[in-house]
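Human: I wish I could look at a protein chain and see how it folds. This is the protein in question:
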Amino acid sequence: LAVVDWRRCNVTTEIQVRETVHDVCFLHNELFFAVAQKRYTFIYDKRGIELHCLKNITGSGALRLQFLPHHFLLASISKGGVLDYVDTSTGSHVAHHKTRKGRCDAITADPRSGVVSLGHSNGTVTLWSPSMGTPLATLLAHHAPITAIANDVSSGNYLVTAGMEGRVRVWDVRKMREVHSYISPTPARTIALSQCEMLAVGFGSAVEVWKEALTSKQHSPYLKLRIQSSGANRNTRSGGGGGAAATFAGATAAAAVERLAFCPYEDVLGAGHAEGFTSLLVPGAGEPNFDSLVANPFETGKQRREAEIHMLLDKLLPESIMREPDRIGTLLRPHERQRNLTQTLVSKANAAARAKRVGKRPGEKKGGEKEGGEGGGGGGEGEWRGMRRMRRRGRRKGGMG
């Protein structure tokens, strides 16, 4: 395990855990990170000191991790398809959901609502919240296993999925409808979205970046990068049609791309591969204007401690995670209240009429015993069925039956 300062190209922390590492993710700041190891999930600090072991994450070991900063929840999906939520501020186990869809290698979260999206081997995408044991929605995205999934960082309205059939599809989460799709030469292994709607797709040893790829379909990539196989510091670069060409420096490994991630508020794309890490320059990828109350790159130690306290005080409950978070705290309009009241009264009236109709049948006594004793039970039931048929015929003809 290693924590690298990509600005200064310095390794700040490096430890040997002596077992397989499946995934890593930072928590609410850069001082803590979670590691999904072979059996358990561990939390380390910036010096590499083990702080906590999450033994309450069930299953056969976590494969992927996703942190929800507004709720202080660490979501993990295990090899057996079990989704767990752990509160990192208290260490308590919040939820345990069985997806019943087998192994899952793709996970992402909506930054606006906190809904976790899982990509399964049968080509479906399921949306989850810790308060419900069943998916909020299920989407058939591909006819092949899903290899990667990513959420729109800015608005959360779009979802991008990649499948083994070689297609990258863009979905509108509000309508659950496909917007458009792209074709990759080989199945994409990883995808990433920037704050300015740039889509990075990694397949084999190549990386393609598509500009404004969510709202409209682009006919050519904004830039391409291919890592050569000789191990020398040599890249192949080209600009897409109509887009500005980009210059790269620093690719040193000849290996397949494993993971891509954009740096917030920076025009930098990080590429992790089998032989190391490479930072790539992508002009226009990061948001140029930042809010110091949300992310302050010049904060001091005192400001960081105060920001951590404010985040804990503003922590949202797990029950607040839903597909439409804008409905929280809103008021119903008068016609909506009247419509809901009418629907409630109609449903209650129908339930009362149904209970009255089936509650007391002809040929039954008060205790529920049919007239005629044991031998006459069949006759009473037959009369009741005959009367029901006569009533139905009468209603069809306009009579009362």
Observations:
- The two ends are 80 Å apart (CA to CA).
- Residues 232-253, 361-379 have pLDDT under 50 and may be disordered.
